[in-house]
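I hope you will forgive my troubling you with a question about protein structure. I should value your view on which stretches of the chain appear to form regular backbone elements. Here, with my thanks, is the record as I have it:
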Amino acid sequence: MARNTVLIPTLQPVATACAPQPVPPLQGFGRLRLAIAAGFVTLALLVPVQLLVQPPMLLAERFVAGAGWIELALLAGYAAWLAATLQRPGAWSRWRPRVWLLFSVVFFAQLVLGLAGVQQCLMTGALHLPVPALVVAGPVYRGEGFFMAGLLLTTLVLVGPAWCSWLCYVGAWDQQAALRRPLGRPLSPRRREAIRLGLLAASLGAAWLLRQLGAAPPTAAALAGGFGLAGVAVMAAVSARRGWLAHCTSFCPLGWLVVRLGRISPFRLRIAPTCRSCGHCRPTCRYGALDREAWRRLKPHNSCTLCGDCLDECGALQLSFPGLTSPGARRLLSVLVAALHAAFLGLARI
């Protein structure tokens, strides 16, 4: 705890922190019900894709006719296991980074195989750069290719900004970089907002202008690749040295859009009036959403992605969903993120 005291010397000692209120662990039939629910949600997301989308989107179906149904069953079982695992005390902050990194590794492994000549590992057989901003800027330039944007919108409806902390194929690496150091002091929320909004406007404007000028795909790809490499530089120069997700919260223009559009989801992180501004929760939030201003307003900053890592640290932090208690909201979110994570493992590729 001394390390945290050095980082935040003006806060009250951590010993005065609000008492944690962990979600009561589910046993037996309760965990089984959540597991079954996650499996069924996964099937609901993927069965229509298997039946209706051509060319096939499930990777197994691209190699062997009918094998997509086997992949579907495996993904549903994996979602069921993950939803049940997240009910264990302290499991959320322990397992989320792991499965997030797993998704990113699978995603980029398919890219490497595609570059090596395995065309089935590419979404359309043509290469698209793995830069999150291209989820929205790419269709503006091409006038087509809205599948990834559709996946994003589906996620926002179901779990809001949790896309950024569970399903972004680049954000997982930003977190791995940030975890190398204790949390430092991020840029102010207003500066982060201004930078991301400016980069979003520039990305969309550049894509539109390139389309109007009839720029060749290699030119557009070179510009997009340069932007992606700049993001990697931000991870290396800032995230890995300061301990906060600088790429996700200050550079990625798609992240700004996600946290705004994510408000269509009713999930919210609340700070109860019992908050003592003790600072115990701050080191767990690598998104810079918790600080003195947030505690005073009883509301996290817009950089909050509902990652949930802070929820076991303090009883004043609660997840809310209309009609549910805080534990109920966390269980519902665990079912949805487990199902979406499994579905993205099956669908998301370049």
Notes: The first strand starts at residue 268 and ends at 271. Residues 1-16 have pLDDT under 50 and may be disordered. The chain is about 60% helix and 0% strand.
